[in-house]
Amino acid sequence: MGLISKNYLVRFITINEKNNTDFSNLSFWKDANCLTDFSSPWKNNPVLKIEFRALYDHENFYFKFRVFDTDIYRDQKDNSFESIGNSDRVELFFRTNESLDPYYCLEIDTAGRIMDFKARPGKNFDFNWKWPKKDIAVQTSKDETSFVVSGRISIQSLKDLNLIHNNTIEAGVFRAKFSLVENLQYEPTWISWVDPNTETPNFHIASSFGKFVLL
Fold first, then answer.
1. Is the Cβ–Cβ distance between 89 and 73 less than 8 Å?
2. Cα 19 to chain center, whole Å?
3. Is the peptide bond before 102 cis (omega within 30 degrees of 0)?
4. In sequence order, what are the residues at sequence separation of 6 or more whose Cβ sits closer than 8 angstroms to the Cβ of residue 12?
5. From CA 191, how far away is CA 59, in angstroms rounded?
6. Longest dimension (CA), the chain
7. Are strands 89-95 and 103-109 parallel, antiparallel or unpaired?
8. What does the pLDDT look like over 68-112, one tens digit per residue?
9. Distance CA 88, CA 139 (A)
10. Run of H or E residues at 159
11. Reported pTM
């Protein structure tokens, strides 16, 4: 099992914007630490800039990805998990402990479609499991230089899933970037906050996780 190598400090906020459902434009994002330490360890090319921010209050954990990329690919044949899995997206994984038994995955594309599932070691995925709808909300937007995926997850749901220990959440932060290669085929580039030190891309491994420290 790999040792956790990175921490991200999540600041507590007291600003009351409970009625603001535009998570990407909440005024308190200016107070969040900005995480930009992403790479694709399996490719030599530098990755386009990604900014990840997170905050929390007594009720919710808030997150925001801003990805400086306008060449976005989205598989639109349907709204299945297969379609989401073939699209540009951002990903948050949360684990109960280093054994990954279990861990929970949220993969969100640029249209706000969510692939949520429960997993166990060896890529044992339970796609019938869903994050409770009342406990998660996401929003997406784009401008001339970037796209944004932001949202909130209830603190209660994180506690119910045994994902907060000593004010710490063990999490992976990832991105899948699809690029046209040839014959209308798209190939993914796998991007991670923590380098899992694997020969081939693999986020579903203990060494791909870091720590969110709730201040």
1. no
2. 24
3. yes
4. 55, 56, 57, 214, 215
5. 30
6. 52
7. antiparallel
8. 999 999 988 888 888 898 899 999 999 999 999 999 999 999 999
9. 15
10. helix 155-160
11. 0.93
